[in-house]
Amino acid sequence: MHSVLADAGFFDGPGQGGRQIIELLVAFALTALIGLEREIQGKSAGLRTQAIVGTSAALILLVSKYGFHDVLVAGTVEVDPSRVAAQIVSGIGFLGAGLIITRRGAVHGLTTAAAVWESAAIGMAAGAGLLLLAVAVTALHFVIVVGFAPVARRLNARLGEASDCT
């Protein structure tokens, strides 16, 4: 099958190699882990949402890096992937805003909204080939949500406030 696709020129263009597939798979795996944690905690924007956001962000960044070289005339137009990255951040802000709920004067969903934003950033890092950074931020996610949760509960109990805005 691979040779048929190769003979048809399927892998000829820039960005059509194994490296980009690895970057997409890393984005998928890392953000699925974050989604699994959110799912286990019973929060909205769980496994499917986080994996879709992260994988999509990686794909969008890969398209911005490699997707327009065939239509650009050499030397006349420069491709700037950072412009697309900025739009991903803006778009995820709208998605995150939809996850934040105010009930009886308390705000809920901030951690979940932040996790969606983080999944987009992890996907963007993976799509940009910054795999070590993507892995490091995923590890830090678990330090924050698992390690900081008991500290936040104790602080909130001591201060007599509602639990951390999750």
From TrEMBL:
A GO cellular-component term linked to this record: plasma membrane
InterPro entries, per database record: MgtC/SapB/SrpB/YhiD_fam, MgtC_SapB_SrpB_YhiD_N
Ranges that cross the membrane: 20-36, 45-64, 84-101, 122-149
Keyword Glycoprotein: no
Keyword Membrane: yes
Keywords in alphabetical order: Cell membrane, Membrane, Transmembrane, Transmembrane helix
Annotated MgtC/SapB/SrpB/YhiD N-terminal domain residues: 24-153
Membrane topology: Multi-pass membrane protein
Main location: membrane
Subcellular localization: Cell membrane
Family named by the database record: Belongs to the MgtC/SapB family.
Protein's name according to its UniProt entry: Mg2+ transporter-C (MgtC) family protein
Species: Mycolicibacterium tokaiense
